[in-house]
Specification:
Blueprint: E1 9-16, E2 19-28, H1 33-44, E3 50-61, H2 63-78, E4 82-86, H3 90-98, E5 106-108, H4 111-118
Parallel strand pairs: 2-3, 3-4, 4-5
Antiparallel strand pairs: 1-2
C-alpha cells in the first residue's frame, strides 16, 4: 500500500448476463466512493439480476469501505438485485460475518463460483 499514491483503488465493470461483475482493486475507503458508485450505475444500466463484487485484488477495506458496500447492497435490494461477494480474504470474510453482511450478500471463494451460482 503506497500512502503517497493519489489513486489507491480502481473499479472495473464487466457484464456476464444475467450478472454484472465489479472488479475492485486496491483500497476500499472513502476515496473509492465515487468510482464505486459510478461503476454500480454502469452495471445497473445493463439491468443485471445479480451484481458480483470481486474483492480478489482488494488489499484493504476500512469501516467507510464497509459502509460503501452496505450502500450498494441497499441500492441493489431496492432494485430487486442480488449481491454476491467473491475473492474475500479470510479476514474480510470474517468481517462480513461479524457485521452480518454475509446474511445479505452471498460469499463465494471466487468469481467463477459466484457466476455459476448466478445462472442457477
Amino acid at each position: 500500500m503506497n500512502p503517497d499514491s493519489s489513486t489507491t483503488y480502481a473499479v472495473d465493470f464487466s457484464s456476464e448476463p444475467p450478472t454484472a461483475v465489479l472488479r475492485l482493486t486496491g483500497q476500499i475507503d472513502r476515496d473509492a466512493a465515487s468510482a464505486l458508485s459510478a461503476a454500480y450505475d454502469t452495471a445497473s444500466s445493463t439491468d443485471p439480476q445479480v451484481v458480483v463484487l470481486d474483492f480478489t485484488e482488494v488489499d484493504y477495506i476500512n469501516s467507510t469501505g464497509i459502509a460503501l458496500v452496505v450502500g450498494l447492497l441497499a441500492r441493489a435490494r431496492a432494485e430487486k438485485r442480488a449481491v454476491h461477494a467473491a475473492g474475500l480474504t479470510d479476514h474480510y470474510r470474517h468481517v462480513f460475518e461479524i457485521t452480518r453482511l454475509s446474511d445479505f450478500i452471498k460469499v463465494f471463494t471466487d468469481v467463477d463460483a459466484a457466476l455459476a451460482a448466478s445462472t442457477n
